[in-house]
Amino acid sequence: MKYIGLATALLLSACTSVAQETPLEQALADQFDAAIPAHQSATVDLNADGFDDALVYALGPDWCGSAGCTLFVFKGSAEGYALLSKTTIVQLPLAVSAQQTDGWKDLIVHAKGVGAVVIKASAEGYPLNPSLQPTASADDLEGSEVLLDYN
Q1: Element (H, E) at 108
Q2: What distance in Å separates the CA atoms of residue 115 and residue 117, rounded to the nearest whole number?
Q3: 93 cis-preceded (ω within 30 degrees of 0)
Q4: Residue 135: DSSP 8-state
Q5: For the segment 8-56, what is each residue's pLDDT rounded down to a tens digit?
Q6: pTM
Q7: How many CA atoms lie within 13 A of 146 on its CB side?
Q8: What is the per-residue DSSP string for 72-100?
Q9: Nearest to 93 by CA among 74, 117, 73
Q10: How far apart are CA 46 and CA 81, in angstroms?
Q11: Are strands 145-148 and 115-119 parallel, antiparallel or unpaired?
Q12: Cα–Cα distance, 120 to 99 (Å, whole number)
Protein backbone atom coordinates (compact mmCIF):
# COMPACT_ATOMS: atom_id res chain seq x y z
CA MET A 1 0.00 0.00 0.00
CA LYS A 2 2.86 2.33 0.82
CA TYR A 3 4.30 1.87 -2.69
CA ILE A 4 0.97 2.45 -4.42
CA GLY A 5 0.60 5.76 -2.58
CA LEU A 6 4.10 6.83 -3.61
CA ALA A 7 3.52 5.80 -7.24
CA THR A 8 0.22 7.68 -7.34
CA ALA A 9 1.84 10.79 -5.84
CA LEU A 10 4.64 10.66 -8.40
CA LEU A 11 2.18 10.19 -11.26
CA LEU A 12 0.02 13.11 -10.11
CA SER A 13 3.11 15.25 -9.68
CA ALA A 14 4.26 14.47 -13.23
CA CYS A 15 0.80 15.15 -14.67
CA THR A 16 0.34 18.48 -12.92
CA SER A 17 3.83 19.80 -13.58
CA VAL A 18 3.70 22.23 -16.49
CA ALA A 19 6.84 23.32 -18.28
CA GLN A 20 7.28 27.06 -17.93
CA GLU A 21 8.04 28.96 -21.11
CA THR A 22 10.76 31.55 -20.92
CA PRO A 23 9.74 35.10 -21.86
CA LEU A 24 11.64 34.71 -25.15
CA GLU A 25 9.90 31.41 -25.96
CA GLN A 26 6.54 33.12 -25.29
CA ALA A 27 7.45 36.01 -27.62
CA LEU A 28 8.53 33.56 -30.32
CA ALA A 29 5.31 31.55 -29.93
CA ASP A 30 3.31 34.78 -30.26
CA GLN A 31 5.32 35.92 -33.29
CA PHE A 32 5.17 32.61 -35.14
CA ASP A 33 1.71 31.44 -34.07
CA ALA A 34 3.26 28.71 -31.88
CA ALA A 35 5.20 27.14 -34.80
CA ILE A 36 8.60 28.35 -33.63
CA PRO A 37 11.22 27.79 -36.35
CA ALA A 38 14.66 26.40 -35.73
CA HIS A 39 16.83 29.32 -34.72
CA GLN A 40 19.89 30.64 -32.97
CA SER A 41 19.43 33.33 -30.37
CA ALA A 42 21.39 35.57 -28.06
CA THR A 43 20.41 38.17 -25.51
CA VAL A 44 22.16 41.47 -24.85
CA ASP A 45 21.07 44.90 -23.66
CA LEU A 46 21.15 46.84 -26.94
CA ASN A 47 19.66 50.11 -25.65
CA ALA A 48 21.12 50.38 -22.13
CA ASP A 49 17.71 50.25 -20.44
CA GLY A 50 18.71 47.47 -18.04
CA PHE A 51 16.77 44.76 -19.90
CA ASP A 52 18.28 42.24 -22.27
CA ASP A 53 17.02 42.40 -25.83
CA ALA A 54 16.93 39.26 -27.98
CA LEU A 55 18.49 38.59 -31.36
CA VAL A 56 16.83 35.62 -33.06
CA TYR A 57 18.28 34.24 -36.29
CA ALA A 58 15.52 32.09 -37.83
CA LEU A 59 16.60 29.04 -39.82
CA GLY A 60 14.94 26.80 -42.36
CA PRO A 61 13.35 27.14 -45.80
CA ASP A 62 10.66 29.57 -44.64
CA TRP A 63 13.22 32.02 -43.28
CA CYS A 64 16.34 31.47 -45.37
CA GLY A 65 17.25 31.77 -49.02
CA SER A 66 20.44 31.80 -51.01
CA ALA A 67 21.27 35.31 -49.72
CA GLY A 68 20.80 34.54 -46.01
CA CYS A 69 18.24 34.17 -43.24
CA THR A 70 15.93 36.46 -41.27
CA LEU A 71 17.05 38.19 -38.09
CA PHE A 72 14.40 39.23 -35.58
CA VAL A 73 15.21 41.77 -32.87
CA PHE A 74 13.00 41.74 -29.79
CA LYS A 75 13.04 44.58 -27.28
CA GLY A 76 13.19 43.33 -23.71
CA SER A 77 11.21 44.81 -20.81
CA ALA A 78 9.90 43.80 -17.40
CA GLU A 79 6.87 42.31 -19.19
CA GLY A 80 8.92 40.17 -21.60
CA TYR A 81 9.84 40.69 -25.24
CA ALA A 82 8.18 42.59 -28.07
CA LEU A 83 9.21 42.51 -31.72
CA LEU A 84 11.25 45.59 -32.62
CA SER A 85 12.23 44.74 -36.19
CA LYS A 86 13.19 42.07 -38.68
CA THR A 87 16.04 42.11 -41.14
CA THR A 88 16.09 39.70 -44.07
CA ILE A 89 18.98 38.16 -46.02
CA VAL A 90 21.35 38.24 -43.06
CA GLN A 91 24.43 36.07 -43.06
CA LEU A 92 26.40 35.21 -39.94
CA PRO A 93 28.47 36.04 -38.02
CA LEU A 94 26.43 38.65 -36.17
CA ALA A 95 28.25 41.03 -33.87
CA VAL A 96 27.22 43.86 -31.60
CA SER A 97 29.30 46.96 -32.19
CA ALA A 98 30.61 49.24 -29.47
CA GLN A 99 29.13 52.07 -31.60
CA GLN A 100 25.50 53.12 -31.25
CA THR A 101 22.86 55.09 -33.10
CA ASP A 102 19.76 56.68 -31.54
CA GLY A 103 20.51 54.96 -28.23
CA TRP A 104 20.76 51.46 -29.74
CA LYS A 105 23.96 49.51 -30.36
CA ASP A 106 24.80 49.02 -34.01
CA LEU A 107 24.80 45.45 -35.32
CA ILE A 108 27.35 44.04 -37.73
CA VAL A 109 26.12 41.31 -40.06
CA HIS A 110 27.19 39.97 -43.41
CA ALA A 111 25.34 40.52 -46.65
CA LYS A 112 25.88 38.39 -49.74
CA GLY A 113 28.25 40.06 -52.17
CA VAL A 114 28.91 42.95 -49.79
CA GLY A 115 30.67 41.48 -46.77
CA ALA A 116 30.39 42.93 -43.27
CA VAL A 117 27.88 45.77 -43.02
CA VAL A 118 26.58 47.93 -40.19
CA ILE A 119 22.87 48.01 -39.49
CA LYS A 120 21.85 50.96 -37.35
CA ALA A 121 18.64 51.37 -35.42
CA SER A 122 16.13 54.12 -36.12
CA ALA A 123 12.70 54.87 -34.67
CA GLU A 124 11.39 51.89 -36.72
CA GLY A 125 14.07 49.50 -35.48
CA TYR A 126 16.85 47.99 -37.57
CA PRO A 127 16.63 48.14 -41.40
CA LEU A 128 14.98 45.40 -43.44
CA ASN A 129 17.74 44.96 -46.04
CA PRO A 130 21.36 44.82 -44.88
CA SER A 131 22.79 44.81 -48.41
CA LEU A 132 21.80 48.49 -48.70
CA GLN A 133 23.74 49.47 -45.54
CA PRO A 134 27.31 50.80 -45.26
CA THR A 135 30.26 48.45 -45.16
CA ALA A 136 31.67 47.98 -41.66
CA SER A 137 34.80 50.05 -41.04
CA ALA A 138 37.69 49.21 -38.76
CA ASP A 139 36.14 51.56 -36.16
CA ASP A 140 32.84 49.64 -36.37
CA LEU A 141 34.62 46.33 -35.90
CA GLU A 142 36.84 47.49 -33.04
CA GLY A 143 35.41 46.39 -29.73
CA SER A 144 32.57 44.46 -31.37
CA GLU A 145 31.41 41.20 -29.85
CA VAL A 146 30.30 38.23 -31.96
CA LEU A 147 27.07 36.83 -30.53
CA LEU A 148 25.90 34.44 -33.25
CA ASP A 149 28.04 32.48 -35.68
CA TYR A 150 27.90 29.33 -37.77
CA ASN A 151 28.70 26.41 -35.51
Answers
A1: strand 104-111
A2: 6
A3: yes
A4: B
A5: 343 334 444 445 678 888 998 888 886 888 999 999 999 999 999 999 9
A6: 0.83
A7: 9
A8: EEEEEETTEEEEEEEEEEEEEEEEEEEEE
A9: 117
A10: 13
A11: unpaired
A12: 9
